[in-house]
Amino acid sequence: MNGPRTRGGTTVRSTLRGWGGVTAMAVVCALVAFIALCLPRTAVTTDGRAATRTAHTTPTAQTKADEDCDDPEKQTLAPSSADGDTIQAIKNREGEKRKLIVGVDQNSYRWGYRNPNSGRTAELEGFDIDLVHRIAEDILGDPNAVQFKAIPTDQRIPAIKDGRVDMVVRTMTINCARIKDVAFSAPYFKTGQQVLAPKSSAVKGYDDTLANRRICTAAGSTAYSTLEADQKKGELPSTTDISTTVPNQLDCLVRLQLGEVDAVVTDGALAASQAAQDPTVQLKGEAFTAEYYGVAMKKDADDLVRRVNQILVDYRGDTANGWQASYDKWLSATLGKDAKKSEPPAPEYLRRT
After folding, report:
1. How far is residue 289 CA from its own chain's centroid?
2. Alpha-carbon distance 227 to 234, whole Å?
3. What angle do CA 74, 60, 143 make, to 5 degrees?
4. Which residues pair with 113 in a beta bridge?
5. Which of 240, 245, 302, 253 is nearest to 85 (CA)?
6. Helices (H), the chain
7. Which of 19, 97, 102, 196 has the fewest CB atoms within 10 Å distance of its CB?
8. Distance (Å, rounded) from C-alpha 110 to C-alpha 334?
9. Rounded to whole angstroms, how far apart are CA atoms 61 and 309?
10. Measured between alpha carbons, how far is 34 from 106 in angstroms, rounded to an integer?
11. For residues 25 and 59, what is the distance between their CA atoms, to the nearest angstrom?
């Protein structure tokens, strides 16, 4: 990859700010990597894979989504508070293993973030983490009955299919490709793909100013698949280099700061949080897609899907300690106090025949 480019004789590296420049960023990344290595020792049971394999329910209505995927965010099951085989298997875990096992991010600021300033334990915090605690409280009666597993972007679906986690709550967009492999809850957040670039950049948004530019995306992300499809259709300049992909989306910000890429494409909600981390970058242009985050689960976990959908109904209706309160705490500073543009529409559900 190319090294840092110069601007008027001064290297990009020397002008970096944000978290204190490249040196500080390297320290933070090293800390995140260290925590990621340590996480399995403190949060992952030795037989976690076997413990999460649950009894199958009847064939799911979710499979009907494979036939008609015009609106993937509507391909989910109606809410229910009933316990089925999947939920009962979670409740039957004994002792310290009686926890909800959830795949999350630990380096997406204000979403799923291990805050090094929160004390010796560096607790996970953010909008997604609040939702996980709410789900655990409803199913197991304890908001802290959670075993968090840090999952890279491109490992979210494999972790679900392999039974390593009960669900993934990790800014995961509901799309047609993914509902062939996993089941989703109703949407809990609305966002869209957006361009992030240095403030001084000539990039104006998702347009011709991306010609001859290097773009970074996370491997397995909606951003990459969108860029790939648009380039094939001629809607993205053919000279735009989209070959740079990384395991975790935050790595794109580091590549951008080092001058190894010219722009980042990711969900606008995540991009806004990254701009908050580094004041030398900013969102360029408007969101060019409309997407929804959902909780992802195994295809045959009908009862768990229904239960999560019921939890989401209650969560959005809880004005004191629910969706709005979490938005105000974590996201209003970067996305604005008006949450209406981020709140998904009233959910629609599949009907069994």
Report:
1. 16
2. 10
3. 75
4. 107, 125
5. 302
6. 12-15, 21-43, 48-51, 85-91, 127-140, 156-161, 222-233, 250-257, 268-277, 302-317, 323-330, 332-335
7. 97
8. 9
9. 15
10. 12
11. 48
Task: Name the average pLDDT for the chain.
Answer: 84
Identify the residue whose tokens are 């976690």.
48
Q: Give the closest residue to 89 by CA, choosing from 312, 311, 304, 310.
A: 304
Residue with tokens 């969101």: 287
* Cα gap 48→140, rounded to integer Å: 17
For 29, the token pair is 């990344």
| Beta-carbon count within 10 A of 202 CB | 10
With 0-12 CB in 10 A as exposed, 13-18 as middle and 19+ as buried, what is 353? Answer: exposed
pTM above 0.70, yes or no: yes
Q: How many CB atoms lie within 10 A of CB 131?
A: 26
Q: Name the token pair of 264.
A: 């980042």
User: Which residues, listed in sequence order, are joined to residue 190 by a DSSP beta bridge?
Assistant: 292
Using only the alpha carbons of the chain, give its radius of gyration.
20
For residue 64 the two structure tokens come to 């009907």
**Length of the chain, in residues:** 353
**Shortest CA distance to 221 belongs to which of 160, 170, 272, 172?**
172
Q: For 236, what's the count of Cα atoms within 13 Å in the CB-facing half-sphere?
A: 24
With a pLDDT cut of 90, the percent of the chain lying above it is 75
pLDDT in tens, 247-272: 988 899 999 999 999 999 999 999 99
As a whole number of angstroms, the distance between CA 243 and CA 275 comes to 23
The SS3 assignment for 345 reads coil
